[in-house]
Amino acid sequence: MKSIEPSHRASEAPAPASRPAPRPGSNVAGGMLAEFEGELLTTRRLLERVPAEMLTWRPHEKSMTAGQLALHIAQTPFGVLTLVLQDEAAPPNFGAGRQQPASVREVLEALDRSAAFVRQTLPALDDRRMGETFKIVA
Predict the structure, then answer these.
(1) 64 and 58 in contact (C-beta within 8 Å)?
(2) From the CA atom positions of the chain, what is the Rg in Å?
(3) In this predicted model, what pLDDT tens digit does every residue of 18-74 receive, in sequence order?
């Protein structure tokens, strides 16, 4: 049996590329935005690699398609921030039908819109607001 060797040892792992570090004294939202920017790079690379011909593939009849899942990932930052900006919110309706993207480009455009919303909204929140608790009510 052939073994697979890692390309580098854990102790020699390269530092994450282009991950901005929070500035000393920055607020909670600033630190979260810095972390978001780093994760956004990884998310974009993942979504760019979804094969266009597999967007409608689903592993099981009750599963989302690969395209629906990719779009869900792209829209999550917008959805989560929109949800937590409210003091109380109803749970999202995950039983509703999911949009099927026509292309990987459509998924990446959704990610760009989501990222723009986070970049615009998150810096406007002060530490007091970031520390508040929100409720999901039925």
Answers:
(1) yes
(2) 18
(3) 444 444 434 888 999 999 999 999 999 999 999 999 999 999 999 999 999 999 999
Angle among Cα 115, 108, 21 to the nearest 5 degrees reads 40
Per residue, the 3-state secondary structure of the chain, as one string, reads CCCCCCCCCHHHCCCCCCCCCCCCCCCHHHHHHHHHHHHHHHHHHHHHCCCHHHCCCCCCCCCCCHHHHHHHHHHHHHHHHHHHCCCEECCCCCCCCCCCCCCHHHHHHHHHHHHHHHHHHHHHCCHHHHCCCCEECC
The pLDDT score that the predictor gives to residue 93 is: 82
**Phi/psi of residue 135, each to 5°?**
-120, 140
Q: What is the mean pLDDT of the chain?
A: 83
Is the CA virtual torsion 125, 130, 133, 135 positive or negative?
positive
- Nearest 5 degrees, angle CA 52-CA 58-CA 60? 170
> Domain limits of the chain?
27-53+61-136
Among 138, 131, 137, smallest CA distance to 29 is for 131
